[in-house]
Every structure is written in structure tokens, then in C-alpha cells.
Amino acid sequence: MTLTVLFCVDPLHPRRVDPHYSREAAAVRDHYGEIALVDHEALRRGDAAAAVRAVPGDLGAAWYRGWMLTAEEYAALASALKARGTVLLTHPEDYRRAHELPGWHDTFAGLTPHSVWQPLAPRQEPQDLSELVRPLNGGPGIVKDYVKSRKHEWDEACFVPDVKNLSQLRTVASKMVALQDDFLAGGLVVREYEPYDGEGESRVWWVDGEPALVGPHPDSPDIEPEPELDAVAPAVRALGCRFITTDLARRSDGEWRVVEVGDGQVSDLPGTVDPMDLYAHLPVPD
Ligand SMILES: Nc1ncnc2c1ncn2[C@@H]1O[C@H](COP(=O)(O)OP(=O)(O)O)[C@@H](O)[C@H]1O
Ligand SMILES: [Mg+2]
Questions:
Q1: Residues 86-113, buried b or exposed e (16+ Cβ, 10 A)?
Q2: pLDDT tens, 217-247?
Q3: Is pLDDT of 178 > 80?
């Protein structure tokens, strides 16, 4: 069978792939696969039926590659596609498990900074912070939502000098929630801070539990660290998702650490990587 990939449509040109993904779509098309277009803006406004209108019927099993979706939007995409005879190769439950920190954190215990979390609606003030951070060691921490941080607003909305200083934690967490606004994913996460060597992260793409591509992180596309994967691989397999990424950083003591896990369908592939190095490893359905 063929490799089929659903890419996001270019909002300005309804028959073209979004320019951010055109290199990847060309790689799929040129070499062996089939592509179809889904409308990310329609998914975001809750109209999954409209989002899949351009997908031909009975396309078979397919991967999605595009902008991030909430777990709810991904589930809506999966059911709208199913109604047209197309099955997403990553199940909505697997998408949520890889995409949101509470889904993968415990499976990566010991390999990733210890973290706690609480569900919050967009713009909701964080609650009971003293209880929330009780399991954490005192000292520096970082806050983020279940998916993204405000790393570009590090001092005001990401880094907390001492997580046990509750007024300090509340100020930074509230700022993060306010800045995420409507886009707050899931809730608040508080993580113990650990020092990394500052040499850039490695993004490892895993397909069916095997490292398909070890590449740079999009924030440092020209740096290609060579992480040690022996400790990470069993956790990836235990998570049980078919296509994920792990972002690895080297701690100052030399240990490779998992900074975050992501669903491979929505992780960004840096422009310095040849898309074929990834797509050649994506399994076609049996
Ligand atoms: N627990 C931590 N200790 C030290 N630095 C961290 C920690 N968590 C995140 N960072 C730093 O903040 C950056 C952004 O965090 P990350 O969890 O990757 O969020 P995002 O999804 O926004 O990329 C990371 O690349 C890393 O440099
Ligand atoms: Mg990151």
C-alpha cells in the first residue's frame, strides 16, 4: 500500500499545501506517496466536516502532518475522516498521550524533570499552589501549559526562581496563563529546573519504538548533538505510540534528559533536515 499523508492546506491557496509543509509534501509525492489536504483553520473553529471536505473518500489509512491540534480537535478530525473511510494511523488517545505532558510524564519518570500539573480553563487563575507543588523539591522551576511554554518570556512567564515561594510562583504562572489566553492547552504544569549544557537540543523521531531520525531541534537547526538513546528507548516503547518525538538536552553532569515528548505528526521538522530522511521511515499501512 502507499504512504498517505494529510497536510494542512495553504489558507491563501485552497488547492496548495501550506508553504511551511511544501518541502515535506514534495518528498512524499516525488518518491512514493499520496497526499491530501485538510483545513486547519476549520478544525480550530470546530468545523471538522468542513476541514476534511477536500479529502477523497476511502483513502485508507493515513498520517496527519501539520500544525498542532488540541487533543479534542484531533479526535474530531479522526472521526470526520472515519466517516469518509480514512483512518488516522495514530489513534486520538495516543495523540493526547504523546502531545500533553500529563500523558507521558510518568512513563518518562527518572529521565525528565519531575513535574506536577493541574487542569485549568483558559484565563482561569491557578488554584491551591501550595498543595500542587508539595511533591517538588524547593528551588528553581519552570511553568508551562500541558503542551507549550512561554520560553520567549522566560523571566516573566516561564522561569520561577523558587517554586516554594508561592507568591512568586503565582505571579509567573498567572502571567503564563494570561499570555496563553484562549490557547492555554489543558492546564498548568510546574517542573523542577535542571541545568543543561546550552549546546542545543536534539529532536529524535521515533517510529514504532525505533529511532528513525536523530536530528537538530528547530530552535538550533544547525547544531546536531549525538544523544545517548539507550535509556530513552524503553520509555518510548512503553508509551506505545507509533510516531513521536523526544527533545533531548544534555544536563551539565553529562546525562541526556528528555525535555519534552511530542506527537510526531505535529512536531516541527527543521529546514536543515532532508524530509526524506524522515518520510523514508514512516511505515505504510499493512
Ligand atoms: N525543567 C527544566 N529545566 C531547565 N530548563 C528547562 C526545563 N524545562 C524547559 N526548559 C527550557 O525551556 C525550553 C522550553 O521548554 P519546553 O518544555 O521545551 O517547552 P516548549 O514546548 O515551549 O518548547 C526548553 O527548550 C529548555 O531550554
Ligand atoms: Mg520545547
A1: bebbbebebbbbbbbbbbbbebbeebbb
A2: 999 999 999 999 999 999 999 999 999 999 9
A3: yes
Nearest-CA residue for ligand 1 atom 24 is 259
Angle, vertex CA 42, rays to CA 39 and CA 48, nearest 5: 90
Could you tell me which residues come within 8 angstroms of residue 252 by beta carbon, excluding any fewer than 6 positions away? 195, 196, 197
Looking at all shown ligands, the one closest to residue 144's CA atom is: 1
- Domain 98-102+197-279: give its CATH architecture: 2-Layer Sandwich (3.30)
Fold classification of 114-192 is Dna Ligase; domain 1 (3.30.1490)
Length of the chain: 286
**Which residue, chain included where needed, has cell 486547519?**
40
Terminal CA-CA length for the chain: 7
pLDDT tens figures, 118-163 = 999 999 999 999 999 999 999 999 999 999 999 999 999 999 999 9
Distance 245 CA to ligand 1 centre (A): 15
